[in-house]
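Quick question: what would this complex look like in 3D?
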Amino acid sequence: MEFRVEKEIVGGLGRAGVIKTAHGEIKTPAFMAVGTRGYVRFLSAQDLHEIGAQAMLSNGYHLRRQSAQIADSGGLSRWEPYQPATGADRPQNGSGEPTVQDASRNDTKMSEKPPILRPDGLLANPWGGPTITDSGGFQVMSLGSGLGKVVSMEKERGVVNTAHKERLAQVSEAGVDFTDPFDGQPDFIGPEESMRIQCQIGADIHMAFDELTSLADTYRYNIEAMERTERWAERSLREHIRHRDELGYRQNLYAVLQGGRWEDLRRRTAQNLAKMQIGGVGFDGFGLGGAFLKENLGEILRWCNEELPAEKPRHLLGLSHPDDILIGAEMGADTFDCVAPTREARHGKIYTREGTFNLRKFADSGKTLDQNCDCPTCREGWTRGGLRALWRSGNSEQKQKYYRLASLHNLRFIIRLTEEIRQAILEGSFAQYQDEFLQKFYQT
RNA sequence: GCUGGAAUCGUCUAGUGGCAAUGACAAGAGACUGUAAAUCUCUCGGCUUCGGCCUUCGUAGGUUCGAGUCCUACUUCCAGCA
């Protein structure tokens, strides 16, 4: 992997650049669509290319039982994201399960083998582009101390940690014991397991196995988790180097910075991870992790990125609200990923230049979702009222259609935002772009 | 015409004398940030100084401390017989 910085924000940490991977280039800043199980829900690979997605983030934890099969396909980028019927993403209402009829209807010729369908009913075509996998570290938190909670950045200040015995994940020095929330099966992932899984999946970029703390965790616990994350990073690096070329192309590893909201921890872990090497080999980039509050996100990123080497790419994990992306880009994050654009689309929250709105309120509207939007949904002339009708219909096929159209729109919105940020950085007008965007979007 | 049965919030529905009344859907509001999420939370008769107050279960009477629940008549609908 090669990373080249093309232009920096004068006097700041932000930059525009290019990451070259074995499966293509990523022009940064860039948003990576989240396809946890190897595909973005309700969107085809073609859809992703059409909206300008440059890379897809999947999760080693969710794909852990299929990693050998993915390796056989030549790696995640070439894999047809098929889940067996017992897979974890089966529809909860039971009506969306692909049926034999679906398969035969989509088939064109009897002589051809039946197409492989994903759990969301779409054809399982390979994504083909650059990929990145998460280690499963997020699940340490979401199934552990953050179980049952929103990973909110704005509230949850006074939250109490989930009692240890109620958690679905238990952390030890060796790794994490999980209970699979879908089938109740016990499982274990540590740094070595995560690296072996990720190297079989074969994304271009991997995340070291880390422990993400929740906002409810104390300073003391954050020190413990961060130091453990550093020890896990070293073990991850060692195991990664062992397996990183096994699929015939070079896979890369990012270390993840934790440390919560404390400057001393953030700077210390950045320094430690930046100089960490095994046999002269260090990390290829860095993941900026943690549960953030909006009010100090920028500051935390500044602490991290002032310490990290400028020539290595940085991925801000799990954030994509426009203000967060703008702060991230300003403070030196190169790539982003987040479930919000697609999840919020499914829940009726639509992004526009003038802010977000809830589609529920536009039953009779003949307006498109956003004026001058270049997403496929708006270009095809879909109206708010028409989309609302699809969404609210009791028909699961129509709902799926809505999910696709709304996901395309919100994803395109965020991808376009990163494209415009990149352009503004290259033109030296980032600060102005940021001001104008925020003023319009948040109407402040 | 006779004999049974039924009428409850926009719709369907629970409801054994202590009920402003169950559940579902619809509707309305909110949440969602490395996906246990086609999910979750809240509202859903009116008014309220948040203590309550008022009006409600086809209509009109009645029994009772108290009636959506029991009785009578009427209205409408359903089924069976003519």
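Answer marked as accepted. The radius of gyration of chain A is 21 Å.
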